[in-house]
Predict the 3D structure of the following.
Amino acid sequence: MELAEAIKTRRSIRKFKPDPVPREILEEVIDTALWAPSGMNTQMWRVFVLSGEKKKEFNKLIENSIYYLNEKLKRLFKEKMQQMVYGFFKDMGGAPHTIVVAVIKNPNRNYQESEIQAGAALMQNICLAAHDKGLGTCWMTAPLWVEDKVMDYLGISEEWKLVAVTPIGYPDQNPPAPPRKPNVVTWLE
Ligand SMILES: Cc1cc2nc3c(=O)[nH]c(=O)nc-3n(C[C@H](O)[C@H](O)[C@H](O)COP(=O)(O)O)c2cc1C
């Protein structure tokens, strides 16, 4: 797939087929994504891929993050959309796998920001590389609300910080592209 087409046609997928993704394909997606840039090329990131019982246990933890978003959800979305979001959080749209991206904790605010941006670049690459393989993803930061619990579950809460989570699998929906805001670019010459 051409790059611009991949960027424009990637969608957040919230309904998946239950079929597992072969390990080689997940590996290819992650290997490609790990070519993301990072500050001073430190690559201080970690990727977790959860499947089977581990995925179920992990998803149970992040399901609760939706309750922290209640107010904002009500403000932004109509009742039907709110119910859809709640349904999605129940089992991450039925995706067979969950991917977690974490970065090293850094007491320096600027370095921490840089690590998080690198982790975000990695997550974007995962979403695009997955899309290129016909897979769906949904970049999620809602699990940050329960970060301590999820990092404890992964056994890395001392040293590592959660960046984002995504379900990954074969899409069972083809959502329309949400519109993009115009007039966000300022040209200074
Ligand atoms: C930083 C970030 C955090 C997001 N967090 C969530 C989330 O917690 N739950 C969710 O359902 N979608 C989440 N999304 C997906 C956005 O809702 C989605 O990207 C946006 O609506 C645009 O739709 P598109 O990805 O199909 O273009 C997140 C996306 C980004 C980039």
Notes: Residues 3-169 form a domain with the NADH Oxidase fold (CATH 3.40.109.10). The chain is about 45% helix and 15% strand.
